[in-house]
Amino acid sequence: MILGKIPNGLYKSDRAKAEKLQKVLQDKGILAPGIEQVNGIKNNDIRYANSSDRSLAENLRDFLKTEKDIQIEDKNLIDLSTKGYKVPPGQLEIWLKD
Fold it and tell me: 39-77: buried (b, 16+ CB within 10 Å) or exposed (e) per residue?
């Protein structure tokens, strides 16, 4: 399963949860170098900036559900390409709520 690169795992308040997730991803060979605290995250999201990365986001969602019991609804797979974001293909972000 190809999951892409995860440059930042963003979380609201549970840094330990974010660090455990980062380790799981890294153990699977996924580049997941950064964790950043962001306030106001109401839902678990996966964000991507290239519409062609939708299938990667879906694979990542399925992986997170199976491996870490992190639920992400389809509506929370967020395509930022329409907002003008420019990042390399295959780069995704995971946003974790409380």
Answer: eebeebbbbbbbeebeebbebbbebbeeeeebebeeebb
